[in-house]
Specification:
By secondary structure, chain A is an alpha/beta fold. Chain A is built from twelve helices and nine strands. The model of chain A has no long low-confidence stretch (mean pLDDT 86). Chains in contact: A-B, A-C, A-D, B-C, B-D, C-D.
């Protein structure tokens, strides 16, 4: 497959849904369009280019609104995040990416909306009625070029010190289709693998490497330039072979992003941050949670 | 011509240089590659989709450096800006575009580097040795959606009050070719016409509308999505006709921009701002000017 | 009076309310504490150091909340702004100050919340049901050192071109008392005079200079350092005379501001922007207006 | 001592230099005024309110310039930092504080100027001639309220994983005197103790807690409000006792900062970041280092 995508649903679509060992179901009773793809076998994982696991994809999220009608969408996403998490224990939320590069900033920006609660505990919290909060730590490890430390190393060292029950990693994704930018959310329990996401990680972030469940949440913000070209020109897979020889070398590693990427990143970050809060603090009502982060 | 470009040199290249009434010359003795295109006739203007006038294009500007070796490039650009300006009188420098939309922000960001000097005058300036400064006013009129005022209206009202000898307008441009983004500068004396630039202006900004010379300076920061697709796939003009029917509707108004757009915009703004300062304050030495804006 | 304050109510308080020709009344039926001070005579104006006119002061505004309980406060402020404005005609809203200096940024930041509507008109607006909007233009003229243009010159040139029915100017203020920073709003119909505000204007902005009503809205964000010193040490007016000789020279022009000035400025800007929108667009309901600016 | 200060030199001055067990010397041959205070005994440490150790204080640093004449100052500071560090081994540089609160942001902002080099190693670095670089990691741990993790916990977990030879912590400080804000740098080898700095740390950061040398570098950005009041009014220590009863309760925890704090923080961060780079990368020449971070 020559299309680059971080969305398992797009990879599945590429094979017209004919992937042995992978199972796609539409989520019912949802206010938003959503699917669950389970990759059962290693062979299916290889065919789709994604690790075994469960991938929930929310589509057509109208993020352009002012969040007054976002409640049902946020709660639907929160439900799926909560379902993949252990039912109790503290959580480490991690925003991957470079906050200074707009299309890569959705991870760090999301963490600005996530309520850190690990330090609110003990007698004082009980007295204030805050002992209902699930303990949450929040970090943005930055990027290797600016820190000299792999995000994975920093996360692993914190996991060893804080002993969370699970990690939530948030990252910007690449999709095949421009129409998905900013309005699709993917949640999965297989973590982050090297080479995925908009940034470039050499360190795998999953249950195997960290020893605890790793839930990845992402929104596509970029499209690979060659993928875009084919998509715009509506080139079919066979035509692509013919055109393959015509591809100019400079486009090989180029990534494109829409003009309104600043706005799209802000909204996506607020959507994810809000959904993570609702997933983690289910004993606090929606309006209170939203007022705490705005 | 189905390629959208704000660069006259690209439009000229599209016709393989065969445009009657237009004259292209390479600028000699330059440390950077530069051309001067003069559009002499209305017929040539129509063929190229650009008003009559002089267009200087600097190419392959290495903006990725730290400005320690930028001196010769900045001075070369400054020379051409100065050449198009009246030799004396005050100048109004205008940064067009939306500072909150990264690819459209190069105008407002450039003005942050331009030295405003109109208010430094009189006895005090003479005593301080600052009466050598050319009077300059600097504004960023913002965008219609945020101000309710056309940039052109705001500029015209200031021209009527301040009576500058000329206006310099700085704007982000669209190019045909990805490889030009951030490393090409176009200077022209024909102003800004509606529909050009990355933003959308309904008000013409030229000598006819403002009554004084209007020098436009721009750097391409975006490529039209369809143009990009053809460029990436190296589609020839004839092949394009065949593929025309395959173009998906959603791409019609889409604009794309590279991932490192934040960095590219910052550097482009500093390059233009520095060149404008050098063009206007020729009695101040280069190092002093650069130190005042960093 | 050696205390510097831009708040007429504080100046009135300094004289223990004994100012002939000035009349102070508490506004009734308000959810927030508010007073109206009318300065009737030139003599009272001189004694108070403020031009003749009406000054409404809202106190103890709890800006630290999340704006979910801000509705009544915003509407109360909006009522007073609307009362001072002409009942019809377009409005020019102006944010004075330097957006890059936190305590001086409240004007420009407020304008980011004000809806520009002047360009939404004609057949299209009628069809969309938007012809109920009052036409509003919004600008931030910047500061003299960065533009070379006095804010007053820019406003006057726009008033001459746009012919608004009134101008609203928003500015950061200096108060005498630290406890007022960020939680007091002053509205007046006497405009802005040179030397007031946190910035420094040489150009008067009032009905006389602009030819139309000028409503000023401000929030104190700084305290003069000497004023602060006396306030903290609770020095009475007579004690002050004794201490006068001890004042160190360096503090003469120093201005101080609280640590949380970033947050305070953001909230103050949103409060003023929202109140101005509610004052101007009284045909649109509160929730819709708030959703348009968040 | 009722004056709050994080500067050991100011504490020493408070006692008119008469502190048994503490030794103050002026640094000679310096282009900037600088002193070295060594606190030898526990008794002196108690009297001065600072842990035993060496404190170098640079004064009257003209940070308002454009860094073209900053070279000698930066190199003088770098020499003292280097002197306190182990001569080899990797370094972890840490910026303490909240990047969103201007007067507290000097730590995180400084780290943006510090070159991370730990990831540049091996065969590739040798081939590129970069094996001369001392390995440096750089982090900004954020603040407890936003992360749920004490800065000290995060640093300790990274120290255990990365095994640096020493830690450099950068923090905003409180001084007694307004005239020191932004133009004094303190370097010490005693780390950071709870309650110092502008932020509030509960976790001690020193050789005892981290097991390796901890060099603290700071610039004062705030003055305690009561300290300021006494300073402005030039109140002597005896007068202070009399005035003590007049202090208004609200000022107890108030902190003040100058109006130009945004500019001051930017420049201070660049000064410290540059000095740390020069201290750590002594095999790279000054101009190259400066060009890499601008």
């Amino acid at each position: 497959m020559q299309f680059r995508t971080d969305l398992a649903a797009e990879a599945h679509q590429f094979w017209n849904g004919e992937v042995e060992g992978a199972e796609l179901t539409e989520l019912e009773n949802k206010v938003v369009k959503a699917t669950r793809l389970i990759i059962h076998t290693e062979k299916a994982a290889e065919q789709l280019g994604k690790p075994k696991g469960t991938y929930i994809t929310f589509e057509n999220l109208a993020l352009s609104d002012d969040f007054t009608d976002a409640k049902e969408k946020i709660l639907a996403i929160a439900d799926e995040i909560r379902f993949l998490l252990p039912s109790s224990g503290s959580i480490l939320a991690v925003g991957l990416g470079n906050i200074n590069t707009t299309p890569d900033a959705i991870g760090p920006k999301s963490t600005q909306y996530i309520l850190a609660t690990r330090h609110i505990q003990g007698e004082w919290a009980r007295a204030a009625g805050l002992d209902i909060l699930r303990p949450v730590s929040v970090i943005s490890p930055g990027v290797l070029g600016q820190t000299g430390i792999e995000a994975g190393e920093m996360i692993l060292s914190l996991v060893e010190r804080l002993h969370p029950a699970a990690v939530i990693v948030i990252d910007a994704l690449a999709s095949r289709n421009l129409s998905r930018l900013g309005c699709t959310v993917q949640i999965c329990d297989s973590g982050i693998v090297p080479g995925s996401g908009v940034g470039n990680y050499r360190f795998k972030l999953d249950k195997e490497s960290l020893g605890i469940p790793v839930i990845a949440v992402g929104i596509p913000t970029v499209v690979d330039a060659l993928t875009l070209a084919c998509d715009i020109l509506n080139i079919t897979d066979s035509a692509d072979e013919i055109l393959g020889s015509k591809i100019t070398p400079q486009s090989e590693n180029m990534i494109v992003t829409p003009r309104e990427i600043d706005l799209l990143t802000e909204r996506g970050a607020k959507l994810i941050g809000s959904a993570v809060n609702c997933a983690l603090q289910s004993s606090v009502d929606y309006n209170t949670l939203m007022s705490l982060v705005s």
